[in-house]
Design a protein that fits this description.
The structure is a single chain. With about 100 residues, the protein is α+β, with helices and mostly antiparallel strands. It contains 4 helices and 3 strands. A hairpin with a 6-residue loop joins strand 1 and strand 2.
């Protein structure tokens, strides 16, 4: 099985604080955010809900996409989330194994 890389967005609530990141183990990374083990921003603002992610085949592609999204205006990030998840529901059960 080929390694997968993920770009993801977590949110505190709909239209609330958000965080974008990249990882090769999305299950573990979401749990780290939820436990407060990483990223002071997500801990401070209780950003724990996985609201969007996409899969990439290479680390370079994932990191490039992450940097692009982080530079986007907030409205663009919200549009990205709402295209696939208009209610901002937790989609962590949709992470591929």
């Amino acid at each position: 099985m080929q390694q997968a890389y993920f770009v993801y967005i977590l949110a505190a609530r709909k239209d609330g604080p958000i965080y974008a990141g990249a990882t090769n183990d999305l299950h573990n990374r979401v749990e780290q955010h939820r436990s407060g083990a990483v990223a002071a921003h997500t801990r401070k603002y209780a950003i724990h809900t996985l609201v969007w992610f996409e899969v990439h085949e290479t680390l370079e592609a994932a990191l490039t996409r992450e940097r692009t999204i982080k530079r986007w205006r907030r409205a663009w990030k919200i549009n990205l989330i709402e295209e696939r998840n208009p209610e901002w529901l937790d989609i962590s059960t949709e992470i591929p194994l």
